[in-house]
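Supplementary Methods S3. Input chains for the assembly prediction are listed below.
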Amino acid sequence: MVQTDPAPAAHAAPQDARPGTAPRDGAGLAVRDVVVRYGGRGGRGGGTDPGTTAVAGVTLDVAPGEVLALLGPSGCGKSSLLRAVAGLEPVAAGSVTWDGRDLAGVPVHRRGFGLMFQEGQLFPHRDVAGNVAYGIAGLPRAERDARVTELLDVVGLAGYGRRAVATLSGGERQRVALARSLAPRPRLLLLDEPLSALDRGLRERLALDLREALRATGTTAVFVTHDHDEAFTVADRVAVMDAGRLLQVASPEDLWRAPASRRVAEFLGYQAFVPAELSAAGRSLDRRGADNSAYDGSDELLAIGPRGLRVVGTSGASDAQGGSASSGAGTWVATVVGSVFRRGAAEITVDVVLPGADPGSPARLVALAGTGGSGGADEGPEPGARVHVAPDPAGCAVVRG
Amino acid sequence: MDGDGRRLTAQARPAAGGGLGRGALWGLAAAVPLAFLGVFFAWPVVTLVARGFVGESGGLDLSGFAEVFSQPRTWRILGLTLWQAVLGTAFSLLLGVPGAYVLYRCRFPGRRVLRAVVTVPFVLPTVVVGVAFRSLLVQGGPLGFLGLDETFAAIVVALVFFNYSVVVRTVGGLWEHLDPRAEQAARALGATPWRAFRTVTLPALTPAIASAASIVFLFCATAFGVVLVLGGIRYGTIETEIWIQTTQFLDLRTAAVLSVVQLVVVAAALTVANRTRARRERALNLSSSASSAHPIRLWRDGRPTGDLVPAALTAAVVVVLVGLPLGTLLVRSFRVPGGGWGLDNYANLGTTGGRNALSVTVWEAMGNSLRTAALATVLAVVIGGLVALVVSRRPRSRGGRRAISVLDSVFMLPLGVSAVTVGFGFLVTLDRPLGLDVDLRTSGLLVPIAQAVVAIPLVVRTVLPTLRAIDPRLREAAATLGAAPGRVFRTVDGPIAARSLGLAVGFAFAVSLGEFGATSFLARPDTATLPVVIFRLIGRPGAENYGMALAASVVLALLTATVMLLAERLRGEGPGGEF
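Predicted structure tokens for the full assembly:
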């Protein structure tokens, strides 16, 4: 892992051998070398079928009050890990502890962990209040009613208590599901892609509401998602998983600025990778992080972020005719494929032959039109035009190959 | 929110004994039904069948097979059984699939009523169906000129009448939830309505159609009451032949051989049914929950639409196949034996019939029917409910899953084994059940137990789809909210399954009310039930007795229909129920 910024590097100093270990001991959730397998023949008879390994040894801590996002592509094992923590899947190896106490053998309903599902899984035969009250049936009636009212208020559904579940919209269902899982004041709330079944606008709004609700109730939570925007919105720290393993755990900002590997960067949406010593931006970024390392940097890559490439000017007419691939200081010649205007800037799709790549197979990347300065960039260039593009250090990172 | 309160619900506490106790509980839930079926189904049937293969000296004697199969009569009966089952199944499908389309895919006023009307024949006692068709086809009946009385065609028509609703409900249940967008996509790609149906909808329906076909085949191949009443002396099935051989000729060996033959036929049909059912339940999970019915439209832009043919066909079936026999039964029950119309037949229900044909009055027989059916229903719902509960589990281990699939098949067996065999087996084994010195034959419990054995598969098939359709994540959600397994069961499985349990109660009661094969063996003259009394009445000479049989059939039909109507109300619109 290469820390490109001294500040996060200092912050992460106690984070010794294991990427997921938080600086504190004991309190909160501790996951140690957990393995989850499916489809095997259990332990009996030394079966021939080992099954598939969904989680292959993950170590992770969640401090009290913290919200951790488990981020990864579908099938990476993040939901399996969540279900293992909840006690819904048996742990094949490793341990799950809470406040230092091993949870092996503690059944789901005694763990005091809440779980919220992707589609809410509300009880269809109970109304909204009946669903929210399910986990606090042991409380005196008045107290229970007060708690239900309070929680419906927290999730913005005051007055919905008597509504039938079938009459709710998708977003309302998820809000009820959230209220239901918060009602028993779980020691830890596990959320399994709680927003993915919703449409985009609603998802963004609900992600903010979810963060507010979790902060307001001081709930410790683990949040599974495949959407990095969602993870960054809700979580204090983000753990990136792939193929059953943990790749990196960091705060959203650190994760974004210093992805630990090419795989993490790819998952976060970094669009291209260039050997660092072949680009000026790469060399400059490299220099920023180089002070604490004796490492020679030969296999370092400049990762170009989704908004990390800029059009710095149109190519001269002679240049376009000649088709010269080489160009001046740190810029590359690119052919415009098309452009769209999004989020306040022209996003131009270009074909560009990256340094060190085969000239016959240009990479198709998205570059932002240059801000101000050279005129004509506002209304994007015509398809087929030749332009110069350059990586913008603010939108790029250096990763190990 | 205070920090202490967040530790309110639970403290981590290892539970060592919990898993073990739960395992024992599930074991018990499986053991009780197994023991029940072992004593009251497997043992009598095996004993009876074994009697056919034990020679004079006590050793195994398989010569019975050669003997029975050397008789041309056996081959004729076997051929008739298969032939009427194949024809009955084919016609039920040909009429039932369009019916499923009209009743589950189209919207029109009165659809609910029509669905209920179509269901009536299935729950009607077989004897009543037989009597209704005879009243239609006899000389002087509305269709007497066709000369169909006591013909093979009459049997097939009655079987279709009986099984039409099985196809409609099984196929319609799936069709109703089929996502219409697949067919719409095919149409948008340029397929004609017929091609879209043939290439998209029909393949999606195949599991349901195959499942319906195998169940209907099963019912047709083991039909008893209908064949006995309509077939006269010329036509019979293996089932009626077993009855004739045991009661008329006392030839247990032939009966045993025929029972084995029937078991083979039934096992084959059940295997097919099981395969397709598993596929069907998976398919149901994929379906959309939104209702996809469209308003029916027979005519558009001066041309008939694709709805016209199925609608016309369904209307014809409802009027001719369902309405006519039942209407004739009702009308003729008011014809006074001496001529003219009146309530005489109903008044006679308080007597024991002309020349004392019966040993109890028909009203007393109705009392017997209600009592035994109530007892049988309790037994069937408890045992069948336990079976459905056990079979609905999806254990983690492969061995557990296999055990459950075996259990599933085992509990379906009574559906296909001849009720006559069961009834007769009871008589020969239960004088000293398990060596205990209690003669169950005189206890009055035999009839309800036999009826329960017949009704259990129906209870299982009604409750199981609902239990299986419960999203396992609902139970997980309840568990993470702190509910122990017992509470999960009580608050999640229970309320959701309860509605289909209501329907199961209705089915069990209706089936018990109409059960004839086993009851005809077991009921003593003073405890005769309505179907037994009706069969005895039509077998006795005299217009008075025939009139009473018609009136008693109407009473029994009304009773059954009332029970089903109540059960349907309990059910609501939820999923579940295969028949």
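Strands of chain B lie at 106-107, 294-295, 299-300, 303-304. Chain B touches chain A through 36 residues (CB under 8 Å).
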